[in-house]
Every structure is written in structure tokens, then in C-alpha cells.
Amino acid sequence: MAKNIIVAATGASGLPLLVECLKIIKENEDFKSYLIMSESAKLTLAHETKYSLEDIYQYADFILEPKDIGACPASGSFKTEGMLIVPCSMKTIAGIHSGYADNLILRAADVTIKEQRTLVLAARETPLSSIHLRNMHELSQIQGVRIIPPMMTFYNLPKDINEMMYHIAAKLLEPFGIEAKEYRRWTGLQ
């Protein structure tokens, strides 16, 4: 039986990372993805990429709308491995932090926390204000919540930005037990 993972995208910069994450999940037969994109994410997608919504949707197994507050991820009885929000805006982090679940993305995150499942937040903002840092710090104290800002790494000697994005996507999915085929782990100085 496939494992379910909820993948959401909000209006922060970083929509190409969503695409990489969905592609990696699609390659793994053990997982089924439930994609929720905010209206701001859809606007950002058009600005940051040449992808259409249909291009993105082909990588997801199920498509949900933020207004579908009664969809399956809104209930703890819907079994998932957890939820990834990539990119995750500071507005979304503030909503999760305060328990303000007025749409399916926030409700699914709220359910993920209350069920003590893995919640990965690809926090996107720079510079970070004291409010952002406080919200992220307090969320990081909750069991299962991981704040993983999409940071570039160089130890794997990436050839181009595509390899950098793949590496970040692999790191975002690792907490769910999803192994990216081309992920190069740190093996120490040689």
C-alpha cells in the first residue's frame, strides 16, 4: 500500500523546488502525493518558471484546492507520512504557529502537528525578522516539525543550479524516508 504525503506550496519564492520534490516523489512507487497550491503559489509559479499548472499537476497523484477544507488531509484519520510545504512563506509559518487553520494548507499542517507526524517547512524569506525567527523557533520545538530552509550546498560540487535544486529537494524529502536516486551525501573529507 502506498504511503501518502501532503505537499503544499505557498507564495514565497522557490517554486522550482516544488517541481523537483514532486518529481522525486513520483519516482518512488511507495508514495502518493496530495498537492495543494495556494493562489499566491500559482501566481509565483507563473513569475518564476515557464511551467503551467498542468505541467506541475502531472507530477502529483492528487490535486486539492486550498478552499477544499473538507478534503481528506483535513482529518487526522486520513493516514499520511506527513506534510511538506515548499516553499513556505512567513505568512504560512505565522498561520501554523498560531493555529489559524482557515484553509486546507493550514488545516493539514495543524492536523500533521496534532497527530505528531513529520512536518517539513522549506522556510523562504531573507532577511529574517525577529518575528519570523520567533515563530520558526517555537515551531521547531514541536515534535516532528522540521524547519529546512532551502540552502545551497557546495560540498557535493554541483555542476549547475539544477544539481543544487535536486540536492535541496532530496534534503527536504529525506525526513519522510524518500530516497532520491542521485542524492550525494557527505562522506567526510577525503
Automatic annotation (TrEMBL):
Amino acids binding dimethylallyl phosphate: Y155, K171
Pfam families the UniProt entry points to: Flavoprotein (PF02441)
Keyword Mitochondrion: no
Domain of life per record: Bacteria
Keywords annotated in UniProt: Flavoprotein, FMN, Prenyltransferase, Transferase
UniProt domain Flavoprotein: residue ranges: 3-171
Presence of keyword Ligase: no
Sites where the protein binds FMN: G11, A12, S13, S38, S89, M90, K91, T92, R124
Catalyzed chemical reaction(s): dimethylallyl phosphate + FMNH2 = prenylated FMNH2 + phosphate
Name this polypeptide is given: Flavin prenyltransferase UbiX
Gene name in the database record: ubiX
